[in-house]
UniProtKB/TrEMBL annotation:
<protein>
    <submittedName>
        <fullName>AI-2E family transporter</fullName>
    </submittedName>
</protein>
<dbReference type="GO" id="GO:0055085">
    <property type="term" value="P:transmembrane transport"/>
</dbReference>
<feature type="transmembrane region" description="Helical">
    <location>
        <begin position="67"/>
        <end position="93"/>
    </location>
</feature>
<feature type="transmembrane region" description="Helical">
    <location>
        <begin position="143"/>
        <end position="168"/>
    </location>
</feature>
<dbReference type="GO" id="GO:0005886">
    <property type="term" value="C:plasma membrane"/>
</dbReference>
<feature type="transmembrane region" description="Helical">
    <location>
        <begin position="35"/>
        <end position="55"/>
    </location>
</feature>
<keyword id="KW-0812">Transmembrane</keyword>
<keyword id="KW-0813">Transport</keyword>
<feature type="transmembrane region" description="Helical">
    <location>
        <begin position="203"/>
        <end position="226"/>
    </location>
</feature>
<feature type="transmembrane region" description="Helical">
    <location>
        <begin position="302"/>
        <end position="333"/>
    </location>
</feature>
<dbReference type="InterPro" id="IPR002549">
    <property type="entry name" value="AI-2E-like"/>
</dbReference>
<feature type="transmembrane region" description="Helical">
    <location>
        <begin position="265"/>
        <end position="282"/>
    </location>
</feature>
<feature type="region of interest" description="Disordered">
    <location>
        <begin position="344"/>
        <end position="369"/>
    </location>
</feature>
<feature type="transmembrane region" description="Helical">
    <location>
        <begin position="12"/>
        <end position="29"/>
    </location>
</feature>
<feature type="compositionally biased region" description="Gly residues">
    <location>
        <begin position="347"/>
        <end position="361"/>
    </location>
</feature>
<keyword id="KW-1003">Cell membrane</keyword>
<comment type="similarity">
    <text>Belongs to the autoinducer-2 exporter (AI-2E) (TC 2.A.86) family.</text>
</comment>
Length: 369
C-alpha cells in the first residue's frame, strides 16, 4: 500500500538526489582543497590543452609527429606565457606607483564633492600596497612563506606544462580510455558528455583569449590617445581581468576612469568612460557572438554566481576556474537533454563530437617515434 501520493514520492526522490549530489560535491571540493598542489596543475593543464588543441591538430594535419608537435606547442606556450607575464608584471611595476598616486588624487577630488565617500577611497588608495601585500599573504596562507611559495608555484607551473605535453600527445587515446572505463552500456553517453564538456571549455578558452587581447589593445590605444598615465599597465589589467567575466571588466574600467579623472580632469575622464563603454559594447554585441562558442553561452546571473562561489572556495584561482568549469557542466547537461529528448534532432554524435581530441573529424593519429 502506498501511503504517499505520486507527486510527493517524486518530490522526495528529487530531494534525495539533490542531497546526494550536494554531498558528493562537498566531498569533492574538500578533496581538491586537500590535494591542491596536485589538482591545480591538472586543471590548468586541461585549460591549456583546450586552448592549444587547435594548434596541435594543425601540426598533426601537417604530418608532424605527435610527440614533436606536442613538444613544439609546449615550447611555444612557455615562451608566449613567459613573455606575457613579464610584460604584464613589468608594466604594472613601472606604472603601479603612478596609478596609485592618480587614484589617491581622484579620491581627493571625490572627497571635495561628496565628503566622506571620497575619504574612504583615499584610505584605500593610500594603503593599496599594504592591501595587496595582505591579500598575497592570505592567498599563500596554506603554504610556507617566502622562497617556498615561489618554489611551489614554479613546480606547479612546470608540472602543468608537462601535463599539457602528455595530454596533447595522447589526446587521440582519450575516447578509447573513457569507453573502457565506462560502465557497460553507457560508453556512448559518457563519451558524448566528455566531448561536449571539452568542447565547451575549448570554446571558452579560445574565445576569451582572443576577446581579452582585442579589448586590451583597443583600450590601451584609446588611453594612449587620451594621454592617460599608466596606459600600458591599465591595458595589462584589462587583459587579465577579461578572464573573469563582467567583474573583471568592471574593475579594470573603473580604475582606468579614476586614473584619467585624477591626472587629466573631468572631461578626459568622460572620454575614457566613453572608450571603455564603447569597447565593452563592442565586446558584448559584436565580439562575443562572433568569437565565443555558442556552447558556452550562459546567463550573466549564472556566471556571477559561479565567480562568487569560486572566489569563496579558492580565491582568485577559483574565480578564474569557475566559469570554464561551469561551462563544462552546462555542456554536459545540454548533451544529456539532447540524448534523452523524446524526439531530439541530434543524437549522441551530434554537437558533442566537435572539438574533442581524437573524435570524429579530428586528424588521424600518426605514429610516434
Amino acid at each position: 500500500m502506498q501511503l504517499l501520493p505520486e507527486g510527493a514520492r517524486r518530490l522526495a526522490a528529487w530531494c534525495v538526489v539533490i542531497l546526494l549530489a550536494a554531498g558528493v560535491g562537498w566531498v569533492g571540493i574538500q578533496l581538491c582543497a586537500e590535494f591542491r598542489t596536485a589538482v591545480v596543475p591538472v586543471l590548468l593543464a586541461l585549460l591549456g590543452t583546450a586552448l592549444l588543441g587547435p594548434l596541435h591538430r594543425r601540426m598533426i594535419k601537417a604530418r608532424i609527429n605527435r610527440s614533436l608537435a606536442a613538444a613544439l606547442t609546449c615550447v611555444a606556450v612557455a615562451v608566449v606565457v613567459g613573455g606575457a607575464v613579464y610584460v604584464v608584471v613589468a608594466a604594472l611595476i613601472h606604472t603601479g606607483s603612478q596609478i596609485v598616486s592618480s587614484l589617491r588624487e581622484a579620491s581627493r577630488s571625490v572627497a571635495e564633492h561628496f565628503g566622506a565617500a571620497g575619504t574612504s577611497l583615499d584610505d584605500i588608495a593610500a594603503n593599496s600596497q599594504d592591501l595587496l601585500a595582505k591579500f598575497g599573504g592570505t592567498a599563500a596562507s596554506n603554504v610556507v612563506s617566502g622562497v617556498s611559495v615561489v618554489a611551489e608555484t614554479l613546480a606547479e607551473a612546470f608540472l602543468a606544462l608537462l601535463l599539457v605535453f602528455f595530454f596533447l600527445r595522447d589526446s587521440h587515446r582519450v575516447a578509447g580510455s573513457l569507453r573502457s572505463l565506462a560502465p557497460r552500456g553507457t560508453a556512448d553517453v559518457v563519451e558524448a558528455m566528455a566531448r561536449r564538456a571539452y568542447g565547451a571549455v575549448e570554446g571558452f578558452m579560445r574565445g576569451t583569449t582572443i576577446i581579452a587581447l582585442i579589448d586590451a589593445l583597443c583600450i590601451t590605444v584609446g588611453l594612449l590617445v587620451l594621454r592617460v598615465p599608466g596606459a600600458v599597465g591599465l591595458g595589462a589589467l584589462v587583459f587579465v581581468g577579461a578572464y573573469i567575466p563582467y567583474l573583471g571588466a568592471f574593475i579594470s574600467g573603473t580604475v582606468a576612469v579614476l586614473v584619467a579623472l585624477a591626472d587629466r580632469g573631468f572631461v578626459i575622464a568622460l572620454w575614457t568612460l566613453g572608450v571603455v563603454l564603447a569597447i565593452q559594447m563592442l565586446e558584448g554585441y559584436g565580439l562575443q557572438p562572433m568569437i565565443q562558442s555558442r556552447q558556452v553561452q550562459m546567463h550573466p546571473a549564472v556566471v556571477l554566481l559561479a565567480i562568487t562561489a569560486g572566489a569563496s572556495v579558492a580565491g582568485v584561482l577559483g574565480m578564474l576556474l569557475a566559469v570554464p568549469l561551469t561551462a563544462a557542466v552546462f555542456g554536459v547537461v545540454h548533451e544529456l537533454r539532447v540524448l534523452y529528448a523524446p524526439e531530439g534532432p541530434e543524437g549522441p554524435t551530434g554537437p558533442g563530437t566537435s572539438g574533442f581530441p581524437g573524435g570524429p573529424g579530428a586528424p588521424a593519429p600518426s605514429e610516434d617515434a
